[in-house]
User: What shape does this take?
Amino acid sequence: MPYAILASSLVVFHLAFVLFVVFGAGLLFRWPGLIWLHVPALIWGIYVEFTSSICPLTPLENRLRFKAGQEGYDGGFIDHYIISLLYPDGLTPTVQLVLGILMVAFNLVVYGLWIRSRL
Assistant: This one.
């Protein structure tokens, strides 16, 4: 049971991290100091998307599920809804590249607006 709880908690953290990478620049308008967390997270997200790499959280999630006696990501709210957001069907290197380009473009726009608001 503890491994299943840890795995589900890690999935929630993983989703929160992905959302922070994509949309975290918007938080800078309220909390400018977050730039020191967001820029490294964004660089990591760009690396993962452009190199079709696997985030180290993914094997850790799978290992915890294995230790919990589970075979995969089936069952429960977290498993059904959140995991499909992190690992959509049809995620190919080309799709990852497009998502990476969109993530970079979105963040460039938000950072541009943020820098402009500080001038």
Residues 2-118 form one domain. The chain has a mean pLDDT of 86. The first helix runs from residue 2 to 23. The chain has one domain: 2-118.
